[in-house]
Amino acid sequence: MPRSIRNFWLTAHIDGSRSPWASGPRSRDGGFTLEVFCRDRGAVTGPLRITGRCRDGRLSLDVEDGGRRLFSKTTQR
Question: What is the pTM of this model?
Answer without folding.
Answer: 0.81
